[in-house]
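[step 3/7] inverse_fold.run input=structure_tokens len=167
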């Protein structure tokens, strides 16, 4: 499969109450098809957040958006466009970062968390020099990160819930 140049197809989720920003790398093929974050059924992102915030697993796009905003979590991706084969982060080439300034302007004191090493590498290389805001790299919720069980991910991600006042 030849790499293709793709552009991030949907906007960030946030409002002025957001206190934590989770940055993925770039939407998977499934997420791009469904036009929403973490749409692949094997990705554990929504399960982890549901556990952390003690809420039922959101199902619809609207429920997921409400869930994030209610819990003061903003969501976007580090990469605005790139060359990519399928969904594998390891195939990302010629990445262009998203401009996070609208989020930082709207949400003073926003803490940044990257979902996996690819997002973290993009953030540190391209975005950190602009923002000066360090990020906490969390283990990826992707099914490709099979070494991390759901309970281990939930434990590692507790810092996210703590950053918005849930413990």
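[step 3/7] decode complete -> sequence:
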């Amino acid at each position: 499969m030849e790499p293709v140049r793709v552009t991030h197809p949907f906007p960030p989720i946030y409002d002025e109450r957001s206190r934590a920003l989770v940055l993925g790398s770039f939407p998977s093929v499934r997420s791009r098809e469904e036009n929403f974050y973490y749409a692949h059924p094997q990705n554990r992102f929504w399960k982890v957040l549901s556990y952390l915030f003690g809420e039922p697993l959101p199902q619809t796009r609207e429920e997921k958006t409400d869930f994030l905003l209610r819990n003061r979590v903003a969501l976007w991706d580090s990469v605005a466009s790139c060359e990519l084969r399928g969904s594998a982060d390891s195939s990302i080439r010629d990445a262009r970062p998203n401009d996070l300034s609208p989020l930082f302007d709207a949400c003073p004191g926003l803490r940044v968390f990257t979902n996996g090493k690819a997002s973290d590498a993009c953030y540190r290389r391209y975005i950190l020099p602009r923002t000066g805001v360090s990020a906490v790299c969390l283990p990826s919720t992707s099914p490709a990160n099979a070494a991390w069980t759901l309970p281990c991910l939930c434990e590692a991600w507790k810092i996210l819930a703590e950053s918005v006042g849930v413990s």
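[step 4/7] annotate
Residues 117-131 form the longest helix (15 residues).
The first strand starts at residue 4 and ends at 7.
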